[in-house]
Design a protein that fits this description.
Blueprint (H helix, E strand, L loop, with lengths): L7 E3 L10 H11 L8 H8 L4 H12 L5 H17 L2 E4 L6 H5 L4 H19 L2 E2 L4 E3 L4 H13 L7 E5 L11 H9 L3 E2 L2 E2 L5 H9 L5 E4 L7 H10 L2 E4 L1 H6 L11 H6 L4 E3 L4 H4 L3 H10 L4 H11 L4 H13 L2 H5 L2
Helix pairs in contact: 4-6, 7-8, 15-16
The structure holds zinc ion.
Length: about 325
């Protein structure tokens, strides 16, 4: 059996999808929001995953319990404990403010709560976090532009970039170009979702219209060899989440996953869990799958570090942790 305790970096995880049913029920009670079930088992049944469109429904129903600054903070601290237990001390989680804002929670409440959580995660668990809030593409682009402005304001508190998420196959990236320009001018990086449920054209647009520094997924670049070569040549890191790709039907089986082809083409790939509770994934589980598909623990770490949006002192510290780790033991199976 492989030793999965090796150091990891998680660049593709949605905080709203890390909340355990017990905590969802607690938030629901406290905020007087009805959930589709009243027990842990009932919620687990409701969340059982079946396809991307159904996933969006589950997401909206369950995340509607998040209302207050203290809720957002709690989500981060809970998840940081999970990360530390998996050997991960640096992560760039996403969160999606458009939905709570649409339900009446002020932007500031959302950003303050998550950033408070990052401070506490560092103190309690030694986990360093940088956020890449996610523009929900199903909302009008103006909401995305507001998100970008708020993200820039929280740069000093740990927001390092922005993302674009939601129904990729229904809403292309180009209308969000202005939001990404606002973020870029404010010193933030870009790591949108592309090439998951939509094909190579979505990746092309993420690169050309949003000036993506990194891609969430990007796996469908394998359908276009020229594009794949460009990702390799430009050193665009793809944050690949094999098990979530299986759950959403992007791949029919893990054996057919594009990760080996991406690596063979020289594309650097970080490995992430995407939606741990909602899709029953974990950073350790996805990392194990990636190793089976030909990645190595050390390369996963180094590829992620190459794509990370952290400041240079943090990068140097993470690099030193990787350089001094005995990866030989991690590679033994
Ligand atoms: Zn994602």
């Amino acid at each position: 059996m492989s030793d999965s305790g090796y150091p990891k970096i998680e660049l593709h995880v949605h905080l709203e999808a890390t909340i355990r049913p017990e905590r969802l029920l607690e938030f629901g009670r406290r905020n007087d929001v009805k959930l589709p079930a009243r027990s842990v088992a009932g919620l687990e049944r409701f969340c059982r995953f079946s396809g991307f469109d159904r996933f969006i429904v589950v997401w909206v129903k369950t995340t509607s319990v998040l209302r207050r600054r203290s809720d957002f903070r709690r989500v981060v601290v809970d998840y940081a404990a999970d990360l530390a237990a998996q050997g991960c001390f640096y992560a760039e989680p996403l969160f999606s403010p458009s939905e709570p804002v649409n339900r009446g929670t002020p932007w500031q409440e959302v950003f303050e709560g998550y950033c408070d959580g990052a401070d506490e995660a560092r103190e309690l668990h030694g986990v360093e976090l940088r956020f890449t809030p996610d523009i929900t593409r199903n909302f009008p682009p103006e909401i995305g532009e507001q998100l970008a402005e708020w993200a820039v304001r929280y740069r000093e508190r740990g927001v390092a970039g922005i993302s674009l998420g939601g129904s990729e196959h229904r809403f292309p990236p180009a209308p969000f170009a202005r939001a990404f320009a606002i973020a870029r001018e404010g010193g933030l990086k870009a790591a949108p979702h592309a090439g998951e449920t939509a094909g190579p054209a979505s990746i092309r647009s993420a690169l050309d219209d949003l000036h993506a520094d990194r891609l969430r997924h990007g796996v469908r670049a394998v359908e276009d060899p020229v594009l794949l070569a460009e990702l390799a040549e430009r050193g665009i890191v793809c944050d690949v989440t094999p098990v979530s790709n299986l759950r959403t039907g992007v791949v029919r089986s893990l054996d057919e996953h594009p990760l080996p082809a991406m690596l063979a083409a020289g594309v650097r790939c970080s490995i992430g869990s995407d939606d741990p509770v909602l899709m029953q994934t974990s950073l350790t589980g996805d990392s194990d799958v990636a190793v089976r598909l030909g990645h190595t623990p050390r390369a996963m770490y180094e590829h992620a570090l190459a794509g990370a949006f952290c400041d240079e002192p943090t990068r140097a510290r993470l690099k030193a942790a990787g350089d001094t780790y005995d990866w030989g033991a991690a590679a033994d199976t």
